[in-house]
Amino acid sequence: MTTCEHNPAGKGAIRGQLIRMVLIPSVSFLLLWALLTATSTTGALRLAGTVQRGEAGIRALSLIAAELRAERKSTQEFLGDGSAATHGALQEAREHTDTIFARQRRQASRLLGSADTELDDRLRDFFAAWKGLPALREKVDQRKIDRETALQEYTSVLSAILLVNDAIVARLHGDGPHTDGAIALELMRAQDRYAQADALLAGASAAGGMGYSETAHFTFLTASYRDTLDRIGPELSSPARTAHQALHQSPSWITLQELSLQVLSRPPVVNSSETAEFNTEIPVAATEWQRVMDVTEPLFQRLVTAQTETVLDNAKAAALQAVVVTVVGCLIVLLAGSVAIVYALRLARRLIGRLHRLHSETLAVADSRLPEIVARASTGARVDVTAELPTLRYGTDEIGRVADAFNTAQRTAAAAAVRQAEIREGANRVFLGIAQRNQRLIHRQLCLLDEIESAEDDPVALRRLLRLDHLVTQGRRYADNLLILAGAGTARQWKDPMPLIDVLRAASSEIEEYTRVRLCSVVQTRVHGHAAADVTHLLAELVENAVNFSPEPAQVDIDTKSTPDGVAVEVVDRGIGMDPDQYARLNATLAQPPEFDVMALSAEPRLGLFVVARLAARHGITVTLEPSPYGGVLARVTLPNSLLDQPRESAAACSPPKELSGIPVAEEDSEGSSTAEDSPVQPGATP
């Protein structure tokens, strides 16, 4: 006797050695690729994060600047006339400014800690300038500061915001062109000068006149923002150019320029006895000026926003492009490396691949092709094993010889399986023939018994004949079992629906000890004729099983309940019950009937439950076993709605039994509940 020599390297040593030859350089490549990918991806994502924080910072600072400009104008008006009304408006403007700053400070603070020290310094300068606002506001409230100085103080805080925006835009552009960003910053400064001119004129109007220095400052501010708008117009982005055109073509903008010109070109005061003096009177009504500003200010803001959005969109596009280029580049490198690794693995696994294919094809034949051949043979079809089974062709080497051995083994197994199927089919035909002959004989016996019973007057003899009738009926059911095992249907069929009470009584009459069966209240419904015989047979098997496993003279209860899915028939015995494993195994058999050959190999064939499972599967009936309240087994049979002919009414509770034709039944209990007394079916009778 020889023993197989194993490779000292262990199982699968050849495969392991070949794979290790490829695996070591492959793992090294993957580690290097992962390092490079992490580095480049981190840089691209950092750029995307910078753009996101920069966008949030610009938007936050723009909101703060807008509120600060409104507060600056209200300050000029209060310092101009000092009235309670203007002071109240100033307080409201301050509250708005503080509220917006509190909301947007967090977004602006996210810019701190970046790699750009200039941005950090400018942002800290802005926060420091903001901290000086309370002192400035106190001076304004006490009127210890003039309008021009207050205007400069507020403008210095706004200038700090513009410097932060300068640093943000420079960082967003990186090494790219700065044209769009520079234009956006110029527009922001022009907007501030435009707002300064508005605040200056509002303060002068409130004070009742504009002095020489204020007029000169107003002239500078007006000329500055107008020059900026005229100069950068052709260089604006497309959306900003549209907004620029809408601003210049607005009637309110034209009116604003005319009013500004009136303020700038007012004539001096002429007195015949004195030298001409500077005219401080403002020839423009404050209400008219404010009306025009209410229209032009949103248009100006739209222009600034359009250009700023262009800068942000370009920055986001550049960041996205960097991320995409990085990811695509890494994927290309990974793909190239993967192709090389896969190619190397294919070379290393060429030999063992043939064995894997041989294994898979052999299993495919055993798992699918062979069962298909057996199934066809079971139906009586002729099967040519040589033609049906595919031949595994793997050449003439060692692997090919193994494949040839598999071919021989599979043909032998298939031939044996086909032969077994033919034997099983022959056995089924024998069962079917025996059952049919028994059915004919039993039918003749029942007819003869009916004649004898009709002619018999002796009660004792009639009782014996009835008992014999039950035994013959039970024998008919056993003959039906053979038909069911052979795959055929029962010989009995009904055309019309059959009341459920009749079905239950017929099932009880098909067992020998029918006197131990007690029918409780029955749901008032009918069973379709095509299923009535099978339902009767199914219930009779369960009732007989319950009687056999219940000690004498214990009774077996049959009760029914209406459910949403149909009608549940419960057969309750008083036996010793089963353990949980037995319940699980038998419920599995009832839910999925096994092949008859499996049943034949079982230590306890339980042909009755196998017949029940076959009948339940045929009609979609659910049968389950569970412990009963009496310690025995409760068999629940759920008849689906598809087998029932009419609406159901609820059944009454189980009542004490009384004798009727030898079968204990419950008395009628309530409306909608039928009892066995109403049934015309007698024990042993054929419905």
UniProtKB/TrEMBL annotation:
Keywords: ATP-binding, Kinase, Membrane, Nucleotide-binding, Phosphoprotein, Transferase, Transmembrane, Transmembrane helix, Two-component regulatory system
Gene Ontology molecular function terms on file: ATP binding; protein histidine kinase activity
Coiled coil: none
Subcellular compartments: Membrane
Domain HAMP: 349-418
EC top class, as a word: transferase
Catalytic function, reaction form: ATP + protein L-histidine = ADP + protein N-phospho-L-histidine
Gene Ontology terms: cellular component: plasma membrane
UniProt record, GO biological process: phosphorelay signal transduction system
Its EC number(s): 2.7.13.3
Transmembrane segments: 18-36, 318-345
Ranges where the Histidine kinase domain occurs: 535-643
A Pfam cross-reference name: NIT
Region Disordered: start-end pairs: 647-687
Kinase keyword on record: yes
Domain of life: Bacteria
Official protein name in the record: histidine kinase
Organism: Thermobifida fusca TM51
